[in-house]
Protein: Malate dehydrogenase
Amino acid sequence: MKVTVVGAGAVGASCAEYIAIKNFASEVVLVDIKEGFAEGKAMDLMQTASLNGFDTKITGATNDYSKTAGSDIAVITSGIPRKPGMTREELIGINAGIVKSVSESLVKHSPDVILIVVSNPMDTMTYLAHKVTGLPKNRIIGMGGALDSARFKYRLAEALEAPISDVDGMVIGGHSDKGMVPLTRLATRNSVPASEFLSEERLDEVLQATKVGGATLTGLLGTSAWYAPGAAVSGLVQAIACDQKKIFPCSTLLDGEYGLSDLCIGVPVVLGRNGIEKIVEINLSDAEKAAMQASAEGVKATNALI
Ligand code: NAI
Structure:
């Protein structure tokens, strides 16, 4: 199993590290445009192999896509991250050009690759990757919902004063502060609805804290987060590589599902060796349907900028 990660910055390197530590891939190739940067990150990570006990071979390349040839999965993290006060949508001017050229180069050298798009604004970048590569829709996956759901579970566990392993919850919709749709109605603590423990007001606080989860970290760090994004991407890569058939909310091209078409937006999907193997349609309440509709309008407005 060969995995390429484009962008050896904060998220790309974190993702490569989690993939290596989980020890399921034979090879990870890091690619960056900055001279020597990916090679340096790869060497540093390889020097953790004997310490962390993994056999994954990590190599780096400066913009040389011949080294990525034959990749089964490629993750696109190249592009600029947001600074405090910025929205993800404001990154589109620079990141659209980067995602376009990187997607084309990846597919040229690995025609059977499954792409995972991380660069923001992620739903629009996933849609752009479809437009430029023409890959079948099961092979282009946007990562946002897995991270937003992890942040939702963190906030739920905090409010419930429960261990995170007892808590479940999912965030669908667009990967933006306004567009996220945390499904508080379906959140549970050990199979019991979270609403049995928390007031409507407290659940709404959890929802609001989840929506600004990325912005809160950007305010604290001065740039966007990397540990949870890297871990979320590695979870998607592992589900595909190990054919796990796990369900994650991912951005995918919709064709009528959830009453939406011609956009990529986060919905639950089954991930296995063929990438997106099934889109799972859950029954939404009227309020959740309206939130999804509004979220889709936001994503489409950003798509109109590419
Ligand atoms: P970073 O600045 O640490 O790393 C980005 C890397 O991309 C840099 O090393 C840069 O040299 C490289 N790069 C730029 N243009 C390139 C090109 N044409 N080819 C190859 N490499 C290129 O940024 P960070 O924090 O890793 O974030 C990366 C992206 O991921 C941002 O757009 C950020 O907004 C997004 N992100 C998305 C998340 C999600 O849930 N979808 C979560 C966190 C970040």
About this structure: The pocket of NAI is lined by residues 6-12, 31-34, 37, 77-82, 91, 95, 98, 102, 118-120, 122, 143-144, 147, 175, 223-224, 226, 229 (CB under 6 Å). The chain is about 40% helix and 20% strand. The chain has two domains: 2-143, 145-303.
